[in-house]
Specification:
Blueprint (H helix, E strand, L loop, with lengths): L10 E5 L3 H12 L3 E6 L12 E4 L5 H10 L2 E4 L6 H9 L8 H7 L2 H10 L7 E4 L2 H11 L3 E5 L9 E4 L5 H7 L5 E4 L4 E11 L5 E3 L3 E6 L2 E7 L5 H17 L4 E10 L4 E7 L9 H4 L4 H9 L12 E8 L6 H6 L3 E5 L10 E9 L4
Parallel strand pairs: 1-2, 1-4, 2-3
Antiparallel strand pairs: 5-8, 6-7, 6-8, 9-10, 9-11, 9-13, 11-12, 12-15, 13-14, 15-17, 16-17
Helix pairs in contact: 1-10
The structure holds adenosine monophosphate.
The site of adenosine monophosphate has 12 residues, from strand 14.
Length: 361
């Protein structure tokens, strides 16, 4: 059994090998900690910067055994890890951070919203939809239009469709493959906000400055932080974040996405039990960034300071936008992060830029 804090030289296991794993591995290396990634994909972005890569499916018993035997703590950077992989690791005696419950709750949009409401965090009104009849009922109870989303597996706006009329219900269910769904009332938001928060093994909580986020076609396009917001709004978001983390007895960094309505009311859309795209600005805009913070938390180290040092506009580089790397590298106030992905497929997150300016006073 590992004892915390893990000393330098320890090995941290990460399930998932995408850009989030890559930036976690870079942060771990800076603290003298090693990273082993488990990824089904050969040549994954994190592999190039990790001490060790195991290429195998997430629920491969031999790979999980190897991780449990060689890593002092195991975390994840990807939400759709099969829950049985974490259960198997727990049975093998591995230390997991965050724990399996946070992942299980976040993997199902209905369970997630039910959990949030139970913890006192407000969300839009919602209903479980398992059939065409359920969807008709939801249109009656929640009103039209409503947003139909698959309960599991959706990301970046995939797996969701607006339903405006009773005549649309059959097509909508067919579009989502008749999978178990959740129907949500429209959030009617003025803007979208996000907050990155961390909880340490001893229960200490640290939150980052509020971020304003802008999505296009369901994909995060850019963020601006620290976001301008009235002090009571900031206090409410911080309170919501602390409640979610404490209720889950969470260890690590979490990204929480919210809607702000015209009257200032806040609704939680969802939380990601991992480092998050809305926190990429912290790499160049905060004293300790979200990736180092996550490594600190899971390794049982003290959390670092989260104050902003710069105002940052973060823009994702999607598809061939990353081909502009040379121009971007010439901009003195721009910090360029490229993920080492081979093929620049349309809409694929290839990197991001953080554009810095002095903090607003
Ligand atoms: P999600 O997949 O839940 O993260 O949603 C992706 C994006 O869709 C959000 O960032 C919002 O822009 C939009 N969205 C999600 N849920 C709602 C909702 N209930 N009402 C209005 N827009 C939503």
């Amino acid at each position: 059994m590992a004892t915390f804090p893990l000393p330098p030289g320890s090995m941290i296991g990460i399930l998932g090998g995408g850009q989030l794993g890559r930036m976690l591995a870079l942060a771990a290396a800076r603290l003298g900690l090693g990273v082993t990634i488990l990824t089904p994909e050969a040549g994954a972005p994190a592999a190039a910067v990790s001490a060790r890569t195991i290429v195998a499916p997430y629920n491969d018993a031999a790979a999980l055994n190897d991780m449990a035997a060689t890593c002092q703590v195991i975390t994840f950077e990807f939400e759709n890890i099969p829950a049985n992989a974490l259960d198997a690791l727990a049975r093998m005696g591995a230390a997991l951070a965050p724990g399996p419950r946070a992942l299980a709750v976040a993997q199902d949009r209905f369970d997630e919203k039910t959990f949030l409401n139970g913890a006192g965090a407000p969300t839009v009104a919602f209903a479980a939809v398992d059939s065409i009849d359920d969807l008709r009922d939801a249109l009656q109870t929640l009103g039209a239009p409503l947003l139909l989303k698959t309960r599991r597996g959706g990301y970046d706006g995939k797996g969701q469709v607006w339903v405006s009329r009773a005549d649309d219900v059959e097509v909508a269910m067919a579009q989502l493959g008749h999978r178990p769904c959740i129907a949500e009332a429209p959030a009617d938001f003025r803007r979208e906000l996000a907050i990155i928060a961390a909880r340490a093994r001893d229960g200490e909580i640290a939150v980052y400055p509020l971020t304003e986020s802008h999505h296009e076609n369901g994909i995060l396009r850019r963020t601006s932080a620290p976001a301008r917001a009235a002090p009571p709004v900031i206090a409410s978001v911080e309170r919501i974040a602390a409640t979610i983390l404490s209720t889950l007895d969470y260890v690590g960094v979490m990204g929480i996405e919210l809607f702000e309505r015209d009257d200032g009311a806040l609704l939680v859309n969802e939380f990601a039990p991992r480092v998050h795209n809305t926190g990429h600005w912290t790499l160049d805009g905060c004293e300790v960034d979200q990736f180092e913070q996550h490594i600190r938390a899971v390794a049982g180290w003290p959390l670092g300071p989260t104050a902003a040092t710069h105002h940052v506009e973060m823009t994702n580089l999607l598809g061939d936008e990353a081909n502009d790397w040379e121009k971007l590298a010439r901009e003195p106030e721009t910090r360029l992060w490229l993920y080492g992905k081979g093929e620049a497929r349309r809409g694929r997150k290839m990197g991001h830029v953080n554009r810095l300016r002095a903090l607003d006073r």
